Amino acid sequence: MKKRLMSITSIALITAMCLSACASKPADSGSAAAPAGDGAAKTESGASEWDNSVAMILPGLITDEAFNQFTYEGMVKAKDELGIKTAYKENVTQDEQVEVLRQFAQQGYEIIIGQGGQFGEAVATVAAEFPDKQFIFSVGTDTFDLPNMSAATISYSHAGFIGGVLAGLNTKNNKVAMVTGEFYDTHRMMEASFYKGVAYVNPDIETTAITTGDWADTVKAREACLAVIAQGYDVLFPCLDAAGAGVAAAAQDSGNVKVVGAVADYAEDYGAKDVTAGSVVFAWDELGYRETKGELCDGKVHVLGMAENGIRPVINMELNEEQKAIY
């Protein structure tokens, strides 16, 4: 391997250069919410310095100890600081998205966030109906050419490249696998960057990417990972929500497999210090916080990378001199 002394920050900058790289009737003001048809969305209120009100629609539960919880907590932080009136609805399915978004707009919420890569078309549909409201497609990179629709996400490109480098440094079989729930645009960006990061270490390493079909199902994640482990893949790079615990379990059960986590700190959050080489932690709370404050409502695409505190690499392995030269 050609030795190149490079810091984590430099890796992120290289990635940026290479890749150039938001129906039951909601209530009037936010706390926890039930699925459509099972109860009302919840609200919390205060006096905003902007005189804004914000509603967040989530695909999962705010107690998932992952994406949904952390973006929600970011909203709560902004509410507490600025007195913003907020509302949210959790566990919203794709079939329910348009109606829930529309109901929040009808109630007068000024900023409405579809939280997750699956919300793009639904957010665009409702944003076109309510041009006087601001909409955010969160974990997305498409504004659908609507002036009142913005997009915001963590830098999946930066995270993928750093994860790829760590995976490449840890494989003994020269076979590494990315694991995700589904592929939205941001995850395709991560996949491409992951492959670039692996090739940066060694272009001969074999790579693959698999989906589990569910972001939170730990059993599905574990079974999917055991299947690729059986094919000789000895480093796993998961990008999941609560299902990440299943990836950690599969690696621990196998005994000779390492995990390079994304989103969560796998060593700490899933008690997997024995198999975790490192993680690229996503600051979902920072994303939810900025969205709620209204900082990202300008009709543009916003990507939070390392410079914006969107991601934070955590290294658990001890690098030898050759690995340090690469990393």
UniProtKB/TrEMBL annotation:
The cellular component terms of Gene Ontology attached to this UniProt record, alphabetical and capped at eight, are: plasma membrane
Which stretch is the leader sequence? 1-23
**Which compartments is it annotated to reside in?**
Cell membrane
Determine if Membrane is one of this entry's keywords: yes
Domain (ABC transporter substrate-binding protein PnrA-like) spans 53-322
- Signal found in the keyword field: yes
Keywords in UniProt for this one?
Cell membrane, Lipoprotein, Membrane, Signal
InterPro entries recorded:
BMP_lipoprotein, Peripla_BP_I, PnrA-like
Q: Which CDD domains match?
A: PBP1_BmpA_Med_PnrA-like (cd06304)
Record membrane topology: Lipid-anchor
* Family, per entry: Belongs to the BMP lipoprotein family.
**The protein's name:** Basic membrane protein
Species for this entry: [Clostridium] asparagiforme DSM 15981
